[in-house]
């Protein structure tokens, strides 16, 4: 089974779970969780100041000009740490668990952010006037400790390839490049960097990575990003629709049948789980006008790519009149989700 962290699955973490984290003193600074009393306007301004040199160099990081609402959303859906000095917040980062393919479709560029056993950090900022004093290193150490305590096998991040000083900083702190991505609307390519927190480290051929690839696959479908979906398939990948006895005998045919399917549909991923045989089983729901469909898909992999998909599709329908609690006893209707 894929690793799942109970209530924290898909990154929707209750903030109260983190308010008991012990603050850590660093010289005259304090590393602690964000508090409800902290000034979000000031936090946004701090982030803007820290990212301004990157923006001036042509790298349009989200944090360069993110709105107050974006700051609130990002910290409320993760574990935000701050560095406080003489009563003023001078640094911050936010730690997240796996993104949800139903909500964060933009993360489809890399499976690393869809792994349930890898946490990742973002909006990492230190006041420019106080950089190179160990505050950033202390925030990273606190994030690593928080991730380790919550069972994560690794900590991930991404940064712009042209930002050589940031790459060097993360390498010094034990992060190594594992992938390159091109985020939507960004003027630069990014590198995804990983630091293992336990042995064995996460790998491209382990069960959770295969689950993450399937999440990326469906997120790419929902975004109509057919190139991204195609990149997850072997050239000779095959797909079988069992109920209609249809066979699609290469990757291009698999993509084409989905790309030309009549528009207006939306995918919701309900579950993605690894099998003992090395494959992945998923359950999705598709909304298309007034119709709803379910698909159970079984994926097999070769060399880190999807090699075969077998799908069983069903149309949502009401049960017949004879199926009722008065006859069957322990029976009920209603969605489990």
TrEMBL record:
Where the record annotates domain N-acetyltransferase, the positions are 29-198
Keyword Transferase assigned to the entry: answer is yes
Cite the CDD domains for this sequence.
NAT_SF
The record's annotation in SUPFAM superfamilies points to: Acyl-CoA N-acyltransferases (Nat), NTF2-like
Question: Which PROSITE patterns does the record associate with it?
Answer: GNAT
Query: Per UniProt, which keywords does this protein have?
Result: Acyltransferase, Transferase
InterPro entries per the UniProt record, alphabetical:
Acyl_CoA_acyltransferase (IPR016181), Bact_Acetyltransf (IPR050832), GNAT_dom (IPR000182), NTF2-like_dom_sf (IPR032710)
The name this protein carries in UniProt is GNAT family N-acetyltransferase
Q: Which organism is it from?
A: Ideonella paludis
Q: From which lineage does this chain's organism come?
A: Bacteria, Pseudomonadati, Pseudomonadota, Betaproteobacteria, Burkholderiales
């Amino acid at each position: 089974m894929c690793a799942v962290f109970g209530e924290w699955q898909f990154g929707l973490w209750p903030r109260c779970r983190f308010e008991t984290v012990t603050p850590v003193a660093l010289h005259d600074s304090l590393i602690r969780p964000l508090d409800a009393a902290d000034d979000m306007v000031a936090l946004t301004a701090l982030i803007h100041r820290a990212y301004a040199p990157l923006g001036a160099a042509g790298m349009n990081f989200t944090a360069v000009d993110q709105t107050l609402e974006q700051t609130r959303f990002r910290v409320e859906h993760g574990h935000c740490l701050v560095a406080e000095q003489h009563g003023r917040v001078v640094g911050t980062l936010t730690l997240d668990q796996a993104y949800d393919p139903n909500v964060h479709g933009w993360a489809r560029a890399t499976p690393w952010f869809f792994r349930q056993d890898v946490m990742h950090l973002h909006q990492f900022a230190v006041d420019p006037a106080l950089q190179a004093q160990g505050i950033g290193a202390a925030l990273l150490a606190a994030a690593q400790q928080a991730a380790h305590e919550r069972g994560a096998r690794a900590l991930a991040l991404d940064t712009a390839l042209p930002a050589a000083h940031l790459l060097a900083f993360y390498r010094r702190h034990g992060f190594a490049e594992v992938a390159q991505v091109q985020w939507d609307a960004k003027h630069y390519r990014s590198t995804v960097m990983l630091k293992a927190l336990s042995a064995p480290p996460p790998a491209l051929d382990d069960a959770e990575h295969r689950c993450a690839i399937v999440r990326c696959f469906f997120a790419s479908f929902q975004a109509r990003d057919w190139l991204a979906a195609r990149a997850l398939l072997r050239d000779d990948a095959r797909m079988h629709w069992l109920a209609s006895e249809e066979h699609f005998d290469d990757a291009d045919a698999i993509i084409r049948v989905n790309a030309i399917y009549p528009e207006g549909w939306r995918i919701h991923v309900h579950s993605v789980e690894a099998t003992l045989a090395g494959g992945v089983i998923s359950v999705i729901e598709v909304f298309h006008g007034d119709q709803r469909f379910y698909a159970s898909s079984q994926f097999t992999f070769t060399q880190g790519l999807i090699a075969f998909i077998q799908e069983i599709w069903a149309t949502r329908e009401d049960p017949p009149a004879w199926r009722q609690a008065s006859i069957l006893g322990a029976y009920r209707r209603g969605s489990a989700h």
